[in-house]
Amino acid sequence: MKIIRKDVAHCSIRKDGRKVTKLLEMNIDSLSSSMVLYHCDVPKGEFAEHYHAKSTELIFFPEGGKIKVNGKLYDMNPWDGVLLEPGDRHGYNESECKDIIHFAIRIPAEDDKVEVQECPSIL
């Protein structure tokens, strides 16, 4: 698991004036040739704790939020992200019932989500 913080990422200004922030660079050759990109609107900010058996998942929070990973709670600023390896338990429950938006990329694009049943509340 790796937390990705936008405020410490490398930023450059291109000749045309674009501000480009490199949030993550990684080699995916060994992972798979398939991927899936999700945009999720999560009502009341509740997303049940789960893990992926085979997939690596990258989740970004455009408006910020909170996520619990492997038992530890992380505050996410706008556009912060988290890189999750297979088996990393994750989910969230925003205590103020705030709707959460996140973008997720999963590699490979497999349906390998496993719900965590032993823990009724993740916060």
Q: How many domains is the backbone divided into?
A: 1
The largest pleated sheet is described as: 5 strands, antiparallel
CATH top level?
Mainly Beta
The total beta strand count reads 12
Topology-level CATH name: Jelly Rolls
Q: Report, as a whole number of angstroms, the end-to-end distance.
A: 19 Å
Question: What best-fitting shape do the alpha-carbon axes yield?
Answer: globular
| CATH-derived architecture | Sandwich
Give the oligomeric state: single chain
Work out the helicity level: under 10%
Give the C-alpha Rg: 15 Å
Low-confidence stretches: none
Total helices: the number is 0
- How is the largest sheet built, in terms of strand order? 1-9-6-11-4
What's the pLDDT, averaged over the residues?
83
Work out the strand percent.
over 45%
What can you see in these coordinates?
With 123 residues, the protein is mainly β. The chain has a single domain, classed as Sandwich (Jelly Rolls), CATH 2.60.120.10. Helices cover 0% and strands 50% of the residues. It is built from no helices and twelve strands. A five-stranded antiparallel beta sheet has the order 1-9-6-11-4, with no helix packed on it. The two termini are 19 Å apart. The mean pLDDT is 83.
Give me a quick take on this structure.
It is built from no helices and twelve strands. The protein is mainly beta. The chain has one domain: Jelly Rolls (Sandwich).
